[in-house]
Write a structure and sequence with these properties.
Number of strands: 17
CATH class: Alpha Beta
Order of helices and strands: EHEEEHEEEEEHEHHHEEEEEEEH
CATH architecture: 4-Layer Sandwich
Strand order of the largest sheet: 5-6-2-1-17-14
Strand content: 25-35%
Shape: globular
Number of helices: 7
CATH superfamily: Endonuclease/exonuclease/phosphatase
CATH topology: Deoxyribonuclease I, Chain A
Distance between the termini: 28 Å
Number of domains: 1
Length: 291
């Protein structure tokens, strides 16, 4: 079972959205999460400019490649519930080859669209796509508030078969502990060091890769597997090239030419074999042998 999470960006026309879909298809994703996604055609920037995007077409293109079972988390889903939600343009889209059901939670009022939790019905896996908004300046304290809420969700999911992945906008290590606390790096580290969540790169002994490129390369996208997951973690990758498609990496070549990349984040994909799936297959084989 292959699960993908990709901050594929928002400021794209339909040709790029189609190319991103082709990359997802080539990677063989069974479930895919997309952040910086919106069902809305355009947004009003802080400068008062109306910016359009073709991201709202993503769901249809994914359905065309077999990822037609879809759930979403976006601030528009919260309209009419009477709470003073902060208007966040971005949300998360989940697309699957098999049925998934959404778990509705109550995130902080300033962070709608940051955590999408679904159950993959056949395997019973709880799958989460997330994105930590890149708050800075006067809003930077929101990072810690959202991280504390997310940490509670990780604790809730500890004993379940769960995989949480996406754009954490957080590094494992910072120059100072105060900066780590501001950005949530201390909580991220503690999940693997103290609370049993597994980094697939460690579990598969794979060399860790950068996942984001802007001036420099950094690893800020993660997949974390719960202590309660009792299947196998088989592979992990964050490819910057899929066939002829440049999915991410530096924006320019060494001689300064544009690379035509599809996003500044690489798609992160993990391959697992859930125990429930293995048991189902074995049970079917035994039944077939008796007939």
């Amino acid at each position: 079972m292959r699960i993908l999470a990709w901050n594929a960006g928002w400021n794209w026309g339909e040709p790029v959205v189609r190319a991103q879909t082709a990359a997802v298809d080539a990677l063989g994703a069974d479930v895919a999460f997309f952040s910086e996604w919106s069902p809305v055609r355009d947004r009003l920037t802080s400068a008062g400019t109306l910016r359009a995007s073709s991201g709202y077409l993503r769901g249809g293109h994914l359905a065309d490649i077999g990822l037609g079972e879809q759930c979403q988390e976006h601030v528009t889903d919260r309209e009419g519930d009477g709470r003073p939600w902060t208007t966040q343009h971005w949300g998360i889209l989940a697309a699957s080859r098999e049925p998934i059901t959404k778990t509705t939670l109550m995130p902080p009022l300033h962070a709608p669209g940051s955590w999408l939790e679904v159950t993959h019905q056949r395997s019973g896996l709880t799958l989460v796509g997330l994105r930590m908004p890149a708050w800075e300046g006067r809003s930077i304290y929101h990072r810690r508030e959202l991280w504390e809420w997310m940490f509670e969700q990780f604790q809730r999911l500890t004993s379940t078969q769960a995989i949480v992945m996406g754009d954490f906008n957080t590094e494992m290590h910072y120059a100072s502990e105060s900066r780590a606390q501001t950005y949530g790096g201390d909580l991220l580290r503690s999940l693997t060091r103290e609370h049993g969540w597994r980094d697939p790169y460690d579990a598969t002994r794979t060399t860790k890769q950068p996942t984001f490129w802007h001036r420099s390369s950094r690893r800020i996208d993660y997949a974390l597997v719960s202590p309660g997951f009792y299947g196998s973690i088989d592979a992990v990758d964050a490819p910057t090239q899929v066939g002829d498609l440049v999915t991410s990496g530096p924006s320019r070549t060494e001689d300064g030419k544009p690379r035509g990349r599809l996003a500044d984040h690489a798609p992160l994909i993990i391959e697992v074999s859930p125990a429930a799936v293995a048991e189902t297959v074995m049970g079917s084989s035994r039944s077939a042998a008796r007939t």
